[in-house]
Amino acid sequence: MIGCEGIGLRYGGTTVLRDVAFDVPAGGAFGLIGESGSGKSSLLRILAGAGLRHAGRVHLAGADVPRRPPRAFFRRVQMVFQDPGTALHPRQTVDRLLAEPLIVHRLRDRDARIAQALADVALPSSVRYRYPHQLSGGQRQRVAIARALIAGPDVLLLDEPTSALDVSVQAEVLNLLADLRRDRQLTIVLVSHDLGVVAHLCERIGVLLDGALVEVLSTDDLRAGRCAHPHTQALRRLSLELDAPPPAPPATPTR
């Protein structure tokens, strides 16, 4: 459904991406992991048609995407950003935020579509005329997801969609995304530095190191430790260490 070939990107004298290539089948979910500065978000912006001056090709449903994609592309490919607090306009109500993509793409039945979009992300109708600052972090991210899905895209690009949320609501948002993917047959590309988040939602994972895709493997292989590249092995070890329970405090000596 979506993929790229030979993607390269430079900012001044700094190489950000180096000959990156991968494909995601329709209805599939592909995760990109790597350290900060490895090029994950820049690659996602290229897939989103952000107009970066990159080398290589992006394709959607078998057709090359031009450097200036048409409006129809942006209806088919939508993005959810990391921090809903900055992604949502603070002076627009939820109603206006959800109406905007309907206006851009000239879709009718706006009232019914907005009501359904809220229901799809398990938000009550009472939030419709509230402002973002009147919502919790989890509710704001659900609004951002509803806005991305309201025009009926085929591809959803997720840029660390849970990293700005409290731990208590991260699982709720991930489960919501998994349900929406299943119900709508969405194709997903997820960027994260958290192996647990990627493994929860994706079947295949690509590992970025200094802008290069050094390994692509299945989630099952990652869980089993069947990693070929040393960087993937190091990320997996670190993830296991972070997920391990803390050691018990030493016993207090008694007199």
Automatic annotation (TrEMBL):
GO terms for molecular function: ATP binding; ATP hydrolysis activity. The complex is composed of two ATP-binding proteins (GsiA), two transmembrane proteins (GsiC and GsiD) and a solute-binding protein (GsiB). It is a peripheral membrane protein. Keywords: ATP-binding, Cell inner membrane, Cell membrane, Membrane, Nucleotide-binding, Translocase, Transport. One of its GO terms (biological process) is transmembrane transport. Its main location: membrane. It is an enzyme of class 7 (translocase). It is found in: Cell inner membrane; Membrane. It holds the Pfam family ABC_tran. GO terms for cellular component: plasma membrane. It catalyses: glutathione(out) + ATP + H2O = glutathione(in) + ADP + phosphate + H(+). The lineage of its organism: Bacteria, Pseudomonadati, Pseudomonadota, Alphaproteobacteria, Acetobacterales. Part of the ABC transporter complex GsiABCD involved in glutathione import. Responsible for energy coupling to the transport system. SUPFAM superfamilies: P-loop containing nucleoside triphosphate hydrolases. This is Glutathione import ATP-binding protein GsiA. CDD domains: ABC_NikE_OppD_transporters. Residues 2-235 form the ABC transporter domain. It comes from Acidisphaera rubrifaciens HS-AP3. Belongs to the ABC transporter superfamily. Glutathione importer (TC 3.A.1.5.11) family. The keyword rRNA-binding does not apply. Its EC number is 7.4.2.10.
